């Protein structure tokens, strides 16, 4: 009887460990549950871009690619983002030419710009706070401003090129480096800030 009790206890512990592992793999949602009901799902970025003041106070979800990140004098960070379409998981997708423009996203706390360098893909859940006219090259550009309530920083694309050892693949000559390896697939979950 004692062996059966031990086996039942072990099965229970294994079941708990496996369920905890699956819960951890599910990750953190891009749109936190406490904000999901507050998001105005009927407002698109092109609407906000066309008339930022009309949507002031609206909570929206928008994704894109970081162009610059700068610390602010008053504890905060300003992120300039090129908007991109989102897939059903709110991850930025598509070509850069699919963009509807740029926006400025503001974090109330300081974030080291090195942690979100140019080219980083992000999704912002934030409140539209208005517009800011800045010089963009030789043109005045009106940036919609969004105060970040939740920020998801997406990992690099799942495939990257790397070298394997021992050497693998064709010889490309002395100017191209002698050997190139097969593509490496390294899926990583999104990181939340």
Fill in the keyword field for this structure.
18% helix; globular; alpha+beta; two-stranded antiparallel ribbon; single chain; 193 residues
Characterization of this structure:
18% of the residues lie in helices and 35% in strands. The chain has 193 residues and is of the alpha+beta class. The longest helix has 25 residues, at 2-26. Strand 1 (59-72) and strand 2 form a beta hairpin. It is built from 3 helices and 8 strands, in the order αααββββββββ.
Question: Summed up, what is this model?
Answer:
This protein has 193 residues and is α+β, with helices and mostly antiparallel strands. Helices cover 18% and strands 35% of the residues.
Query: How large is the count of helical segments?
Result: 3
Count the strands? 8
Strand content: 35-45%
| Low confidence ranges | 11-26, 159-186
Measured distance between first and last alpha carbons: 51 Å
Radius of gyration, CA atoms, in whole angstroms: 23 Å
Major pleated sheet: 5 strands, mixed, barrel
> Helix proportion of residues, in percent?
10-25%
Helix/strand-derived category reads alpha+beta
Query: Roughly what is the average pLDDT, rounded to an integer?
Result: 78
Shape descriptor: globular
Give, in spatial order, the strands making up the sheet with the most strands. Answer: 1-2-3-5-4
Order of helices and strands: HHHEEEEEEEE
């Amino acid at each position: 009887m004692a062996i059966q009790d031990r086996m039942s206890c072990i099965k229970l512990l294994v079941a708990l460990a496996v369920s905890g592992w699956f819960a951890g793999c599910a990750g953190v949602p891009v749109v936190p549950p406490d904000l999901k009901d507050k998001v105005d799902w009927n407002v698109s970025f092109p609407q906000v871009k066309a008339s930022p003041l009309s949507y002031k106070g609206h909570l929206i979800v928008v994704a894109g690619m970081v162009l610059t990140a700068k610390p602010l004098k008053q504890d905060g960070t300003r992120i300039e983002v090129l908007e991109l379409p989102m897939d059903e998981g709110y991850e930025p997708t598509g070509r850069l030419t699919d963009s509807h423009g740029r926006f400025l996203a503001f974090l109330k706390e300081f974030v080291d710009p090195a942690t979100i360098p140019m080219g980083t893909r992000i999704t912002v859940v934030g409140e539209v706070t208005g517009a800011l006219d800045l010089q963009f090259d030789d043109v005045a550009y009106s940036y919609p401003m969004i105060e970040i309530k939740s920020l998801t920083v997406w990992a690099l694309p799942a495939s990257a090129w790397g070298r394997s050892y021992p050497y693998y693949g064709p010889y490309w000559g002395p100017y191209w480096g002698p050997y190139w390896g097969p593509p490496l697939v390294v899926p990583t979950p999104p990181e939340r800030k």
